[in-house]
Known about the structure:
Layout: E1 11-13, E2 20-22, E3 26-30, H1 34-39, E4 50-54, E5 59-61, E6 64-67, E7 75-77, E8 79-85, E9 101-108, E10 111-112, H2 113-122, H3 127-130, E11 136-138, E12 142-143, H4 144-147, E13 154-159, E14 162-168, H5 176-186, E15 194-196, E16 204-206, E17 211-216, E18 220-227
The structure holds manganese (II) ion.
Manganese (II) ion is lined by residues 28, 30, 78, 80, 109, 196, 198-199.
Amino acid sequence: xxxLFAPFVTSxxxxxxxLRFPLRRVWCIGRNYxxxxxxxxxxxxxxxPVIFGKPADAVVAEGGAIPFPCATVDLHHEVELVxxxxxxxxxxxxxxxxxxxxxxxxxxxxTRRDLQQAAKARGEPWETAKSFDRSAPVGVIQPASxxxxxxxxxxxxxxxxxxxxxxxxAQMIWRVPALIAQVSRLFExxxxxxxxxxxxxxxxxxxxxxxxxAEIEGVGTLAVTLTAP
Length: 229
Ligand code: MN
């Protein structure tokens, strides 16, 4: 088959491998840590996970220098455990969910909070706030064969050396198996899909020039420097 122009493939490095992980789709979970739900002004915990998506080409492999995005004056960081799906599945049972996981990485779900607040107020979808270019830096994938399936461990993010977000994977309202089960009831999961699993409390604004450093115990690190727009 010949293409009119070269297909665009986004991929992530895999620790200890020369192979790269080709990306297919990016699913994201909102409101999955109680302390973050509270800081966003929601009184009650959600009855089901909030699910939204980003295009795969919003992923910036290994972070690095990212230009400050357009159309916002309130860009927020959200550090998240990212699950890399390695096996297709639909209506996956929680007990079988981890068989579909290839590995894990550290990600940042950048959010144009001003656009999100406006969208929420108007009852509109979140694409303009969440699905913009370069909104999803993700670090190196650690295969589960090496790091296991982390159900607990420190997750934190600092800006210019100052700690902003600090939590533990054990604080997730819905753990990874439950999230995979929930998402796969609505969408067919495919090898190459990523699943962002929500962020702990401490989200906040960043500006051009800021350096963000994120780490998840047992999974890895991710650093981003926001450059001039
Ligand atoms: Mn998020």
